[in-house]
Amino acid sequence: MKKIPQDIVGSIAILKFKKNTFWIIKKWKAMMFLKTHKNVTTVLEKKEKISGRLRKQSTKYLAGIKTKETIYKENNCIFKYNIDEVYFSPRLSNERKLIAEEILRIAKKNQKIIVMFAGIAPYPIIIAKKLKEKGKKVKIYSNELNKKANLYAKENIRLNKLEKFIELLPGDAKKLSQKIKFDIILMPRPNLKETFLKKAIGLSKKGTIIFYHGFGNKEKVLKEIKKDAQDRIGKIEIRKAGDIGKKTYRWNAKFKVI
Predict the structure, then answer these.
(1) Residue 128 CB neighbour total at 10 angstroms
(2) Which SS3 state, helix, strand or coil, does residue 185 take?
(3) Looking at the predicted structure, is the pLDDT value of residue 2 above 80?
(4) What is the Cα–Cα distance from 178 to 161, expressed in whole angstroms?
(5) Residues spanned by CATH 3.40.50.150 within the chain?
(6) Is 1 exposed, middle or buried (0-12, 13-18, 19+ CB in 10 A)?
(7) pLDDT in tens, 98-112
(8) Coil, strand or helix at 208
(9) pLDDT attached to residue 31
(10) Per-residue pLDDT averaged across 142-152, rounded?
(11) CA 152 to chain CA centroid, nearest Å
(12) What is the residue-wise DSSP string for 97-146?
């Protein structure tokens, strides 16, 4: 059978078909997929791309167990979530690993870290687990707008036994209190026009390190950072953090508040 574009997350496979593919063909290919992939118990069809501020996608059931909830393992951590109700990208697994390793190197005892746009808490959990393993006592805050994602984040924190290390700060990132100043800020933001950098600067103090996700080309990302952070930051270190389309990339930019 010709390879079908696919994503496999835990026990769920999400297949992508050409626009005019007959329904009976989709069902047949889904059944065949189940037979040839023993680790998959549910097959869905991707109907709509990820969109909106909550970064949701739409899928349709094709075969197997009728569910959209899965458990996915990554970086020695467990993540439970619903495919349609929350955003989660397995393709960012290596990026999360790189960021966690870098924070492990730079984080100091009793520092405060916040992850904005945290979703089901993959960044907070992977970072917290690495810090815990090395005996580093650091408080991590997980901020997310999507209410259902926060529920899964709470469950995932429990599943990974990190309740003492991570605290949820649910709600709109714009409304985060500036009474608490953070030592490290992660911004794995969605691909939106708004950068949220002014808010991040407001949550910072002198010496705060910010990790920012920008989209497009390198020059565009550097321009938007300099525009919204103005003269509050030092040297920008930037690298590719994956592609989001033809010659269009996600960039990870790291800089210090001065």
Answers:
(1) 28
(2) strand
(3) no
(4) 29
(5) 89-256
(6) exposed
(7) 999 999 999 999 999
(8) strand
(9) 96
(10) 97
(11) 13
(12) HHHHHHHHHH--TT-EEEETT-TTSHHHHHHHHHHHHTT---EEEE--S-
